[in-house]
Amino acid sequence: NSAAKAPPTPSPLRFSKFFQSNMRILVTGGAGFIGSHLVDRLMENEKNEVIVADNYFTGSKDNLKKWIGHPRFELIRHDVTEPLLVEVDQIYHLACPASPIFYKYNPVKTIKTNVIGTLNMLGLAKRVGARILLTSTSEVYGDPLIHPQTESYWGNVNPIGVRSCYDEGKRVAETLMFDYHRQHGIEIRIARIFNTYGPRMNIDDGRVVSNFIAQAIRNEPLTVQAPGTQTRSFCYVSDMVDGLIRLMEGENTGPINIGNPGEFTMIELAENVKELINPEVEIISVENTPDDPRQRKPDITKAKELLGWEPKIKLRDGLPLMEEDFRQRLGVPRKN
Ligand code: NAD
Ligand code: UDP
Ligand code: UDP
């Protein structure tokens, strides 16, 4: 590889490797919800230089506004389905719409992002010798037949359904990661992320936590999709970012589940939001979408043992942390 053959004089190529000081980190999808929180945390370390590549499909420059113009930060408008030439030491590969309404909006683009986008980032990792972390998803388990889900479970996924562009896309992305690892010796890390929530979620992206909080603030009924007994396990974004960085810095390829094992039915979630944010609000039942997984809860034994990680923030503590950000963006201040 080019780093090994490089002359001993400093060259812009793999600059950081010559001085062993700064770490140059690419975050794809860094203008999105989880990506922007990850960038905040990475930028806190003065030895890190961060490059974000994002096409702003579901992300926004606003999420990164405090870093724009910072000497250790660079933002590139780039679609990962096109090749990217940059010189970096680590790649956090997050680029991909995560909310069902956005990933179903243009399913062909979603699968291209997962497959061609991941292939390009692996080609980049191979060329520059970078370590690459993929944010995969609990959706690789589909509508799971074992509960809670362990990493060794192969999943129960519909290959031709409306969610397949996302879940099969991520499954191929994981396959590509392992094939580049086995065939080309690339250092890989795979996180299987479970439902994550927190400030900066898109207000109208249709995900359940952002929907309920926005509805509670607007004093609109909380729309529980039938039957309402389906479960999810919600991880606060700061815990998620902590888990991703530990995985990147550790020695395990993964896949490793990163999520909060606290499991709630959608009815329980609605009741919590009602109690904490707007006790007056109504809870109603509405129609569901196809292929909705009935239950989901991570087994995080591996994350605990291998990364020394477990989430710290309980759902009832995390929901109020999101409220202020949503109130500001919706222009609805708290009454009292
Ligand atoms: P998000 O939609 O807020 O962020 C995704 C970012 O990727 C956005 O900024 C978007 O503009 C960008 N993007 C999309 N397609 C792109 C492309 N072709 N080229 C360049 N940029 C592109 O979503 P998020 O919740 O921050 O999710 C981040 C990652 O975590 C995704 O890979 C997602 O699959 C994964 N994940 C998230 C959750 C969750 O609950 N939020 C759960 C499981 C997995
Ligand atoms: N690639 C990229 N940036 C790089 C190197 C490669 O985006 O710095 C892309 C490249 O365009 C290719 C993909 O990554 O489509 C896979 O690259 P690889 O070298 O593994 O395969 P090949 O180019 O031999 O098909
Ligand atoms: N859901 C709901 N009301 C909403 C939006 C979603 O009850 O307004 C339910 C949905 O049916 C699913 C769960 O919440 O069972 C999680 O959906 P989300 O889209 O947030 O994430 P994912 O299905 O990807 O886990």
Automatic annotation (TrEMBL):
Pfam families on file: GDP_Man_Dehyd
Q: Which InterPro entries match?
A: NAD(P)-bd_dom, NAD(P)-bd_dom_sf, UXS-like
Q: What is this protein's name? A: UDP-glucuronate decarboxylase
Tell me the cofactors it needs: NAD(+)
Which family is it part of? Belongs to the NAD(P)-dependent epimerase/dehydratase family. UDP-glucuronic acid decarboxylase subfamily.
Quote the catalytic activity from the record: UDP-alpha-D-glucuronate + H(+) = UDP-alpha-D-xylose + CO2
- Where does this protein reside within or beyond the cell? Cytoplasm
Task: Outline what the protein does.
Answer: Catalyzes the NAD-dependent decarboxylation of UDP-glucuronic acid to UDP-xylose. Necessary for the biosynthesis of the core tetrasaccharide in glycosaminoglycan biosynthesis.
Lineage of producing organism: Eukaryota, Viridiplantae, Streptophyta, Embryophyta, Tracheophyta
Coarse class of the protein's main subcellular location: cytoplasm
Q: Which Gene3D superfamilies match?
A: NAD(P)-binding Rossmann-like Domain
| Record keywords | Cytoplasm, Decarboxylase, Lyase, NAD
One GO biological process this protein is involved in is: D-xylose metabolic process
Q: Which GO terms describe its molecular function?
A: NAD+ binding; UDP-glucuronate decarboxylase activity
EC no. given is 4.1.1.35
